[in-house]
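Example record for the data management plan.
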Amino acid sequence: MSSTVPCPICKASLQLTPDGEFNSWVCPAGHGRAATLSELYERMQEDEIHRLWSLAKASWVASEPVTGRACPMCDRLMVTITVPTDVDEVDEGQPGDGADTGLETVDACVVDEVIWFEEGEIDEFPADLPDAQPTAAEDAALATIRRDFATSLDEATGTLPAPGEASGTEWPAPPVVAPAN
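Corresponding structural encoding:
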């Protein structure tokens, strides 16, 4: 990969641009933006990301593209896919999944896991919904898992918990080192 990331439309150097927790490479001429699959979790609903990636991989496996836009990261041709969207964040076909309400076309590089959105396309995808806060019961279960994991790790490595975190075990006295003659 070169030190510059070219726009797949005009070849201008894309600018890495933060937008809150979401980072993408934006074309200075306004043609669009590139984002990694992992960054999309900061911006889009998970079910659309899962569907987008599933469609991209299936399209790539069916036939590696011979025409289209080059990936800004590696210059391979990207697959062009049309992604159905909906307002819920439930994976396709699962209980609670609503009807599709739109279609968005994007380009994807399956090798680099990069998605190219023309100007405004990313805004057409439903925004990520906030995750629900854990219940008191879920918090208690997580605390138990953390404690059990720490205990197992301590036993496996032969270490003891930090002072104040001891689980009823007394700390051994420090070893006595004889002075050198």
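Summary line stored alongside the record: The chain has a mean pLDDT of 87.
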